[in-house]
Here is the input.
Amino acid sequence: MKPLWWQNGVVYQIYPRSFKDTTGNGIGDLAGVIEKMDYLSDTLGIDAIWFSPINPSPMKDFGYDVADYCDVDPMFGDLATFDRLLAEAHKRGLKVLIDWVPNHSSDEHPWFLESRSSRDNPKRDWYIWRDPKPDGTPPNNWGSFFGGPAWTFDEKTGQYYMHQFVPGQPELNWRNPELKKAMLDGLRFWLDRGIDGFRMDVIGLIIKDEDLRDNPPNPDAPANLPANDLFSRLHQVYNMDQDDVHPVMREIRQVLDEYNERVAIGELWGPMDRWVKYYGTTGDELHLPFNFRLMHQPWSASAMRASVEEMEGALPPFAWPNYVLGNHDGTRLATRFGGQSQARVAAMMLLTLRGTPTVYYGEELGMENGVIPPEKIQDPQGINLGAERTRDVCRTPMQWDATEHAGFSNVEPWLPVSADYRTRNVAAMLNDPTSILTLYRRLFALRKATPALNVGSYATVPTPAADCFVYERTDGPDRYLIALNFSGEAQTLSLFGNGTCLLSTQVDRTGEVDLQALSLRPHEGVIVKL
Ligand code: NOJ
Here is the structure.
């Protein structure tokens, strides 16, 4: 059967604030993405763009606090600009996915303004309101991901509302049929405009335990947690992944299925047994529950191999895998994995495993964690839980060229440009035949041109070299060997037969190789056609 675009394609995540500013306010915008469309389609050759939220928002969590599900924030443009962007993308064969934030809105959303106006307002039940406990404390012990309790008391109506993120992100009540309908209509609004799918924010949170029971304490919580980190002190049992989320997932999926070939990707992080259920029992829920497992492992050949094998083993036959190594909530690969050399190994792994890869903007340059002076921290997580938790480090402006502000903007950007931008930028790296950008371009092209590498089957190749992760991708008679050296030592693998090296992470060798003594240099990965 012919693979669908979201199976054999590569998704590229754009954090719109940080991609390209055309209005001169230091914040990226949609016109900037249009300007860079050829970079996406021709230079990189990715298949789909996913935007972090572009809806109107007070930006208390940088767009993940939505004040109108059916519009574009003026900071980013307007609906007409979005339509133009979509047309420019589609003209080039690129798909466009947008972020959908169904668990919570902004506290400035008109629905919430109505809901909080009185206890008998018709929209009161669109959010989660509860009486205080008899002693006046919050209704249960849940904590916010961003510090403090998951509840804020509303003086006017004498009840608490729930928010598992900042108080400006009140949680929607998906058990209310009218709210559910309004949210599903919001999906249709964008599908009717022609978008190709959604990335659904914290989708496993939308249904909570009906009785909102206390979460049990987590005895393994680190001892040095900030005092206000109530969230990490608890096991997340009753606030996410409830059994009755699945009928709702099916309803969401049915909306997408009213249209042709639209994709539902969901943000989920629970354990494997909970995660795999989001594919649905017959493939009738999410197409791709995001798989963040590789992000949370130690960077070693054995940990990566074990994680890939565990996921391959857990998937039902109808389920298509996917991998994420970095996003706007984490750290940059080159920083996390101990340097530029291993960032290349990570790129080769991500783009040769079986499953849809998502690549975060700037990873193709090997961008490193930004250095954010404490007074410039913007992220509520960093502000509330400590500078070392700020996600700003991975949200610094895209580095286009060596001019001031890295070609991102003509004024000082909302977050500082990283100091290495004069050499680590698109313009400089495009002309360097061995740059990491060249490596990414070669990997994108090879993956696209080679069915074995995109939809082919996966098999681990056992090797006594403990620091190497070796696997084969196969499509009928076409076989490819991927050998990745996670160490700073040279390695020699004893396999069998001969092959042709198509690409090295150092982008400096091709040609016949003897697999009985396959030499890998320190931090080198290779793709060999068998
Ligand atoms: C997950 C998003 O990826 C993150 O950036 C955001 O802060 C939370 N959900 C809340 O929407």
In short: The chain has a mean pLDDT of 97. The chain has three domains: 5-104+177-444, 110-162, 457-529.
